[in-house]
# Entry
Amino acid sequence: MKIYISTDMEGISGINMIEQVQIGSAPYEAARKLLCDDINVAIAGAYDGGATEVVVLDGHGGGQNLRLEMMDSRAKYETVKNTLEVMPSLDHTFGGLILVGCHAMAGTLNGFLDHTQSSASWFNFYVNGRKCGEIGQEGIYAGHFRVPVVMVTGDKAACKEGLEFFKGIEAVAVKEGLGRNRAKCLVPERAHEMIRESAARAVRRAKAGEFSPWALEPPIEIKLELYRSDYADPFETNPAVERLDARTVRKVIQSGREIFHW
# Structure
């Protein structure tokens, strides 16, 4: 069974302040090792569970966060070329999607570094009227290929969100938010044990057919509320986008594959 792993950084074990996820900051370099470690144990767990191939997307800030010399050599690693590309290698031949290092959607109480796409400009994002963050969006994208989300790791709020969208998946909370900008973390050794064990279980359960993809039927309405009216202005240049009010834009898409396309 082929497994795809999509990664972010805010929900990685041991990361408890914003500077650690900001490329170029002093704490970021040490945080890169924390990121690599969480991904490596997820890869190891996937193989423990019977995966035959693992592909990893470095999904934080456009990629280039991993130190490839530190990564499990059994997996393959990729990044996106542009904002319209999501998970380049993902297709119907994969048996499950694992999301490592997740954060909760914008506006989540005690969600560590909660946001949806842009913490500077995006306020709320809706899919067919349901408020949705990046976890849900990735599941919708994978659902287009009939690939189910099988596991989420991140802070407690992100795991709760993942379970609300994808019932019964494996979820590993490696920290708990104390407000938005602080978190109390498990020690990495314990977090890594939990991630590896859950990844193995997730793959075994996926092989047994226990998970279902979130495959939305078209048409699909996506709606975005921005923080300010001037942030909504550029969306009007796309003829497929409708301006609903000062801060809100709407688009109808014909496939879950377009969920990130504005």
